[in-house]
Amino acid sequence: MKALIAEDDPVSRRLLQGHLERWGHEVTAAASGGEAWRLFEAGTYPLVVSDWMMPEMDGPELVRRIRACPRPGYVYVILLTSRAEKADVVAGMEAGADDFVTKPFDREELRVRLRAGERIVQLEHTLAEQNQALREAQAALVEQEKLASLGRLAAGVAHEINNPIAYVTNNLAVLRRDMRSALDVLDAYRRGRDALVQAEPALAAELARLEAEADLAYFEDNLARTCDKSLEGLQRVRDIVSNLRDFARLDEAELKEVDLNAAVASALEVLRHEIKKQEIRLETDFAPLPPVLCQAGKLNQVFLNVLLNAVQACHRGGTVAARTRSEDGRGVVVEVADDGCGIRPEHLPHIFEPFFTTKPVGQGRGLGLAVSFGIVRDHGGTIEVNTAVGRGSTFRVRLPLQPPVGEKRPA
Amino acid sequence: VLDAAELLDRVAGDRELLKEVVDVFLETSAGLLTEVRQAVAGRDAASVHRLAHTVKGMVGQLGGRAAFGAAQRLEVLGREGELDQADAACAELEGAVADLRPALTAFVENGDRA
Question: Are B12 and A22 in contact (CB under 8 A)?
Fold first, then answer.
């Protein structure tokens, strides 16, 4: 285990180093608290053995800094002290030390106390791993449940909307035709207008007034265009419903061959409104792709998550680029680049962790990338990111043409 | 002057480590004692306390019983700020360390007999 020694007395330092190395530890020795702190910040040391009394930064101060430093994994700290009084023990423990060894230190005592520390570090490590696995499983379950209910909702909505859309579309065509006929009849009446003025001047005046009031000329000129626009709108509604249904193909857990260009295009279609609202400039560069054997619905979810993140990372009027390319028969690459805010270095190690989010509480659940990561991994692919704060991020999803066969079947 | 059994136990019987540690002591102790002497002469109680503590830790690990006692007395004087008797304690410490050096050298060279 990697151990850090902080000891200003060179004799004790050399002895400590000798013993710890003999016990199988990888030892780094510092001659002062300050040096130890710099080493600690730059490295990873699950075990720290520190003298109490050192010039400038003493042992308790070093422990306080170590405890205040957010690090994955527990750091077990033993203070070496010639002060064995109760008040000092309390002060050292308050500072965050785990144990004490009195100086001059007894070799065997130090060995067993270090062993106890090692056990605690290992237990913590195992616990953290299990915790992470549990969180991933929970995230996958939550996401699965969310997608399942979204799928049911989408299927229900699609069914309910399709029916009225069909008869509204039909009726609109009928109305258009009948209106045309009605206008023809009106035209025929108009040809008798001069005779009507002679015979029934009051009625003719009334008709002229009504015609002006209804703006009949405008109506006649625009009837065709109004109908076309309405049919276009109805077509859009049909497309949205169809996309929603395609997108939420969640019951289809089986593998099928899919053109990922169509999948990315479908995800972009879902985000069309968001892209427009943010005035995002969209660049697409789709290369012809070989079919990929995959769970289409799940990959749609991946592309949606990555594209949505790109759109949300952008400032108003930013640019999002979606590119695809084939990797000579081995797989395909889908790349999503934005010129938005980028990812801060301290966030980068966590972006694929479940429930990690930088969005305000309530606005993001921190599941999108975690779930995407799991889905891509289950397909035998990888998802990676290049990012620069203030310049934007590029997410790259690599997928093999077929998922790996055998024990790790996508679930 | 030197508790040989204790010293050998502290290095777990590893004579190579013993030689290294004794070398470190021989190289650094003179400089450290000079600093102690200067702190005592300058009546700098805090430095006397700190430096004597370091010397105490050093000789304590090497089985230097007499030197450990002398360093401890000087450390207490520094901590309490009672430097009237520090000159004598410092001289005592220097004497003890002066005795300890050849004893350690002999122990490293001649084996178990100091």
Answer: yes
The pTM of the full predicted model, rounded to 2 decimals, is: 0.57
Other Cβ atoms less than 10 A from the Cβ of A36: the count is 28
Distance, in Å, from the CA atom of A178 to the CA atom of A175, rounded to the nearest integer, reads: 5
Contact assessment for residue A196 and residue A207, using Cβ atoms and an 8 Å cutoff = yes
Rounded to whole angstroms, the Cα distance separating A254 from A297 reads: 10
Predicted complex ipTM exceeds 0.90: no
The pLDDT value given to residue A55: 83
What is the spatial distance between Cα B59 and Cα A393, in angstroms, rounded to a whole number?
59
| The two three-digit tokens of residue A154, written as one number | 């989408």
Tally A–B CB contacts below 8 A.
Answer: 59
Q: What is the rounded radius of gyration, in angstroms, for the C-alpha atoms of chain A?
A: 35
Closest-CA residue of chain A to B12:
A107
Token pair 């969005």 is found at: A359
> Which residues of B fall within a CB distance of 8 Å from A112?
none
Cα A211 from Cα A218, distance rounded (Å): 11
SS (H, E, C) A295-337: CHHHHHHHHHHHHHHHHHHCCCCCEEEEEEEEECCCEEEEEEE
**A311-331 per-residue burial string, b: 16 or more CB within 10 A, e: under 16:** bbbbeeebebbbbbebeeeeb
pLDDT tens-digit readout, A232-256: 889 878 877 766 666 555 445 678 8
Which residues are paired to A323 by β-bridges? Answer: A285, A335
- Which residues of B lie inside 8 Å of A (Cβ-Cβ)? 9-12, 14, 17, 20-21, 24-25, 27-28, 50, 53-54, 56-58, 60-62, 68
Q: Taking CB atoms and an 8 Å limit, are B58 and A9 in contact across chains? A: yes
